[in-house]
Design brief:
Helices cover 36% and strands 23% of the residues. The chain is of the alpha+beta class. It has one domain. The strands form two sheets. The protein has a four-stranded mixed β-sheet, with helices on one face. Helix 2 (75-90) runs antiparallel to helix 3. The protein is globular, with a radius of gyration of 16 Å. The N and C termini lie far apart (39 Å). Residues 104-121 have low confidence and may be disordered.
Length: 121
């Protein structure tokens, strides 16, 4: 595996119950300092997304992920795809190996409630 020598273009964080607003803002500032252009935070409980505003130094609610090359992905489309994947995982036989079930649960992990970051705003 190669070690990156240039910043990634996109960072995506999924809000979790243990994330405080201070921690989240510190992490976004760190990503910004590293030169990451687009920093998104997704809140699975409210089913919203925010993007880091580099000039203001804060997160702002967005309705889509938009990029310089013209690519746009609406936030509600992302949630719909995650819902679809979760339904497929839930329909898997329960006798799958423990390892596969553990991997599958990681894919569903983004659905954990995450209100902590908003409580401190």
């Amino acid at each position: 595996m190669a070690i990156p020598t240039q910043p990634f273009e996109v960072a995506v964080e999924i809000l979790s119950p243990s994330d405080s607003a201070q921690y989240l803002n510190r992490k976004c500032r760190m990503y910004s300092k590293w030169g990451i252009q687009h920093i998104f935070v997704f809140d699975p409980e409210d089913r919203t997304a925010q993007e880091w505003n580099h000039s203001k130094g804060c997160l702002e609610t967005v309705d889509a992920m938009r990029f310089e090359n013209g690519a746009t992905t609406p936030v509600d489309r992302i949630w719909a795809e995650l819902d679809s994947r979760a339904k497929r995982l839930d329909s898997l036989p329960t006798n799958l190996s423990a390892r596969f079930r553990a991997i599958s649960s990681c894919d569903r992990g983004c659905y954990a409630p995450g209100r902590a970051a908003r409580k401190h705003d």
